[in-house]
Design goal:
Structural class: alpha+beta
Radius of gyration: 27 Å
CATH class of the largest domain: Mainly Beta
Helix content: 55-70%
Oligomer: single chain
CATH architecture of the largest domain: Roll
Shape: rod-shaped
Largest sheet: 4 strands, antiparallel
Order of helices and strands: HEEEEH
Strand order of the largest sheet: 1-2-3-4
CATH topology of the largest domain: SH3 type barrels
Distance between the termini: 80 Å
Number of strands: 4
Number of helices: 2
Number of domains: 2
């Protein structure tokens, strides 16, 4: 009888180890497929915004296409057309759409 109880305890213990392994692997997969790529994208976006300079062609989040005429701290003056300038925040410039505009040229 004691050997039966011990056998059941050992069999039950291996199930817990399998569950811990499964849970750990799910967390690892989520890190590599969701969290890590998002962190890389945030770093690229931050670097892009910091490196904006006069003459760059950019697209805002709202869809305005323009050329940077000046950079003033956290704001950027965009020239949309000859004589038409708009002041926008650097955070309103989209990295994704600006890259697409550069590759089309």
């Amino acid at each position: 009888m004691i050997s039966t109880v011990l056998a059941q305890a050992v069999a039950g213990g291996s199930g817990i180890l399998g569950q811990v392994f499964l849970f750990g692997s799910i967390i690892l997969i989520m890190y590599f497929f969701m969290i890590r790529p998002q962190q890389k994208k945030q770093k690229e976006s931050k670097k892009f915004i910091e490196e904006i300079k006069k003459g760059d062609e950019v697209v805002t989040i709202g869809g305005l296409h323009g050329k940077v005429s000046s950079v003033e701290g956290d704001a950027v003056m965009l020239e949309l057309d000859r004589g038409l300038k708009v002041k926008v925040e650097k955070s309103a410039i989209s990295l994704d759409f600006s890259k697409k505009t550069e590759t089309k040229k």
